[in-house]
Amino acid sequence: MPIRRFGGHKSLASLSPKLSYGYTKMNISKSGYRVFSANSSTASTELAKRITERLGVELGKSVVFQEGNRETKVDVKESVRGQDIFIIQTIPRDVNTAIMELLIMAYALKTSCAKNIIGVIPYFPYSKQCKMRKRGSIVCKLLASMLAKAGLTHIITMDLHQKEIQGFFTFPVDNLRASPFLIQYIQEEIPDYRNAVIVAKSPSSAKRAQSYAERLRLGLAVLHGEAHHSESDMADGRQSPPLSRTSTGHTGLELPIMMAKEKPPISVVGDVGGRIAIIIDDIIDDVEDFVAAAEILKERGAYKIYIMATHGLLSAEAPRLIEESAIDEVVVTNTVPHEIQKLQCPKIKTVDVSMILAEAIRRIHNGESMAYLFRNIAVDD
């Protein structure tokens, strides 16, 4: 299915008043900037082509490929000296290869004397690993350090999993929002959306859902409880050091008895009976929780169920599970390539966000304010 372009807009000059941005077509030979794609796969370059079409420039000439021993090689085919370089990198299923492609291209441009190197990474990988989990690591912080070391001086991304991730970087990060595009889809593509209720899949996502509900003037419902918990306390270090070790001296403090955390079965806080339920989230990857939520909402009387998310990773058996579930439609943006998943599941729809990414590139190169892209955007989006 083709990606929706609301009204057939093909350039930034002919946008609806709701999403119109200033635009000046620029000649690539005089503009002082280049736009490259760091992807080696054809499917992942689609977003880069859409962005360059909107900007009225050609995609930079470069070759990114895997050698026989699986090493990544990048060959930039034109001069970048003294110019602003934008690297568009969408993240396919092979996340680690995409990261290496981005790092190697950034370093190649840095050593070729590019003036500024701006990474356009709509979905920032490893963003879920942004908190310390027992003996794990904050991988997102590690990736931020690697990007800075490779030569990036700025990043444009969209709907970071946690906004605090911006603090991991030593250079500016523009965290754009997809909510205006998803809200426009709700208003234009969901019949009788006034009879809908915005649903938060968990209390942690209630603020995002509330922001949507307030702008759409709709009610809010929250799902509470889970079928399982992702963190296991089976090996949390309580028996360390081993009991067999003999020790002398202080035996340790007597701590209060810690109550085990037990989540109740999924319940709905709010009325969804006879309503359209629209579940809001930033990422949809493993869909088991969404499928379980849809079943509960159906039992509570919701007659249609939509899922709206920015990043449609849709891993593993997600397309099949969605197709067999009570979910009527899953709406995601094209920040992540998912054409194969759409072929497997007609319920998946795509909203094009290349417009705002192109405008961000134009504004950064021209030194214009980015505040215009965040007008009417709530902090909790």
From TrEMBL:
Residues 229-249 are annotated as: Disordered. Keywords: Nucleotide biosynthesis. SUPFAM superfamilies: PRTase-like. GO terms for biological process: 5-phosphoribose 1-diphosphate biosynthetic process; purine nucleotide biosynthetic process. GO terms for cellular component: cytoplasm; ribose phosphate diphosphokinase complex. CDD domains: PRTases_typeI (cd06223). It comes from the Eukaryota. Residues 40-151 form the Ribose-phosphate pyrophosphokinase N-terminal domain. One of its GO terms (molecular function) is magnesium ion binding. The keyword Lipoprotein does not apply. Belongs to the ribose-phosphate pyrophosphokinase family. This is Phosphoribosyl pyrophosphate synthetase associated protein 1.
